[in-house]
Amino acid sequence: MKTQKNKKIKSADVRGQKGESWLYSDVVKEHFFNPRNFMHYDEEKKFKFNATGRVGSPACGDEMVLWLKIDPKTEKIKDCRWRTFGCGSAIASTSVMSEMVKEKGGMKLDDALKITPNDIMKRLGGLPDRKIHCSVLGDKALQAAINDYFRQTKQHKRIITAGAKVIDKDLNITDHDIEEAVLEGAHTIEDVQKRLKVGVAKPEAKEAIEELIRFYWEKYFS
Ligand code: FES
User: Cβ(136) to ligand 1 under 6 A?
Assistant: First the structure.
C-alpha cells in the first residue's frame, strides 16, 4: 500500500485523523502480534498462582488482570501471566513487562516494584506519547498483584499504598485524578480542570496541583 507521498505504510502503523502516522517500533509490533505469557481463558483454572492484581484505566475504560506465581522462600517471581481488554500498546507493554519479571530465574518482589513505565518503554523502543498511559496499566497491575501477595502473607507493612490524596477538598480532586489527567495529555492546571470537568480549584490547592502536574509529567514523559 502506498500513501500520497509514495511512502510504504506497514499494516501495523496507526494513522491519526490528519493523516500523520503513529509509528510503532518493531518490538511493539512483535509483542502485539505474539504476546508473551498471555493467560488464555481455558488455562486460568489450571494455573497455580498465589497473587493476582486487577486494575482499570479511567483514561480509556480498559482493564488488566495479572497473575503471579511467587516463590515464598526467595520472593522471586517464577511466573507472570496476564490478560487485558486494553489496546495494542497495553498488550505489547505488558508482554514485555511479563518477560522482564521472569528473566534470570525471576525478579525479586522488591526489584519488580522498582520497574518504571520508562524501563518498559526503553525495552519497547518507545511508544507514541498518547499511548504512554497504556504502558502504565501493566505496571499498576503488577503492583496490585504484589500488594495482594503481601496482604495474603500478612506482610501488611510492605503494602505499597499509592493512596489517593485529596488535593482539593471542595472539588474532591485527588493525586490519582491529576495523574490520569497528565497521562491523557494535560500539561497545565487549565488542562486538568478541563479534563476533570470541574471549575476553578481552591486557590490554595493550585500550587499543589501544579506541582503534581510537573511531577507526573516528568515521571511519564521526560
Ligand atoms: S489501554 Fe486503553 S487505549 Fe491503550
Answer: no
User: What's the whole-model pTM score?
Assistant: 0.70
Among 171, 176, 94, residue whose Cα is nearest residue 139:
94
- To test the pocket of ligand 1, the residue of 28, 32, 57, 66 to mutate (highest count of ligand atoms within 8 Å of its CB) is 57
Task: Select the more confidently predicted residue: 6 or 60.
Answer: 60
Q: Which ligand 1 atom is at minimum distance from the Cα of 137?
A: 1
Domain residue spans of the chain: 14-158, 166-221
Query: Which residue did the predictor score with more confidence, 35 or 183?
Result: 35
Cβ(63) to ligand 1 under 6 A? no
CATH fold label, 166-221: Arc Repressor Mutant, subunit A (1.10.10)
Which one of 60, 94, 97 would you pick to mutate in the ligand 1 pocket, going by the greatest count of ligand atoms within 8 A of its CB? 60
pLDDT at 12 over 90: no
Query: The domain 14-158: what is its CATH number?
Result: 3.90.1010.10
